[in-house]
Fold this sequence. Notes:
By secondary structure, this protein is α/β, with parallel strands linked by helices. 31% of the residues lie in helices and 22% in strands. It has helices spanning 20-37, 51-60, 70-78, 93-103, 117-130, 154-163, 185-208, 224-232, 252-256, 288-291, 356-362, and strands at 15-19, 40-41, 65-67, 83-86, 109-114, 134-139, 169-175, 215-218, 241-242, 267-275, 281-284, 314-316, 322-327, 332-336, 348-353, 365-370, 373-379. Strands 1, 10, 11, 12, 13, 14, 15, 16 and 17 form a 9-stranded mixed beta sheet that branches. It has an 8-stranded parallel beta sheet with strand order 2-9-8-7-6-5-4-3. A hairpin with a 2-residue loop joins strand 16 and strand 17. Helix 1 runs parallel beside helix 8 (224-232), helix 4 (93-103) packs across helix 5 (117-130) and helix 7 (185-208) crosses helix 8 (224-232). The radius of gyration is 22 Å and the shape is globular.
Amino acid sequence: MQQKATPYAYLDTPCVLVDLDQLDANILEMTQHAADAGVGLRPHTKVHQSAWIAKRQIEAGACGIEVGTIDQAEVMANEGLDDIVVGHPFCGRHKLDTLKRIVMNPRNTVYAVVDMIEHAHGIAEVGRAVRRDIPILLKIDTGGSARYGVPPGEPAVKLAFDLTRIEGVHLAGIYAHEKGATNTEKGLSGKAFEDATIVCDTARAMRTAGIEVGHVSVGASPTFRHTCKFIREGRFPEITEIHPGNCAIGDIGYMMNGGNRREACAVAVLTSVMSVSHDTYAVLDAGVKTFGADSLIAKRETPDFFWEGMPSYGSVQGRPDLWLGRLNAEGSCIHYRDPGEKLSLGERLVIVPNNATLVMNIHSKLYGVRNGEVERVVTVTGRGAGS
């Protein structure tokens, strides 16, 4: 059987490709939105987990970075990134010891997000031990996400007041992350406006109560463009930072949430066809251990979500006739929607994944490509660091 042209034939598969031109374009876009709005940009690195990409974001104009966990903060600090927000609250001796190791270096600034006074007491122990107040941000629950956060308004003001009385920490401000927006222009704009209103009202209430609030951040990936537009229009002057993350990378899930176009996805998986012994599908050398197992089932009401009862696990570049419909551990079945367009043994496919976060956390390195050639190998710095 004649083998068709194979992109990046010198690379073993499966592996992860990063389109460096698209990455640069995505970084530039988010940086420009923040600059035009006059707010700081603190990109969340939870998707790419790469110190090299984070440094590119800093060089482009970001004021610092955000990570998900304190362990991710440590690996990024070890790579010279010294202004970090830890987006998820944490507690426990091991995590507090990690915080202590980071802040013992006077160069490093770590903002810890809290939603309980118990979080602050643990962090304050570290602050007193290193004789340095640790800045903390109070997470505001704006709705749409059953995760962390204190209710806005009076409950947040009361907890903020209590936090200001703890020696060893400094209440630097408040933080919110929009979730639950509907993927329409009206839905994304409405969610951005609603959450910005909630957070800014809470910031004003705190200031009225005599509580200093210097940091006010919102701006998740699907909504940050709308947030910046409102700020440019003169609304929400209290907002000081935005913290989008996935827009630098992009994936099918983020696209379905209204965050990016399919063409703006910078990351893809390079795979090879291992078997064409069946008439209705071929088998690839990439499965759950390459893509993760996110079928995006929460989006099942989306038109054409299923094909012959199967969800899709990724989008094949240049081949809408192929459906990545079933994953095994080390392989997957890619089905022919057009029986006349069969794959060849050894043929290579480039597939944009449903969930880039899972892909990054599975792989130790990425291949940065430009103009069809590998320009550099990028280390996934934060892989395994509490992610």
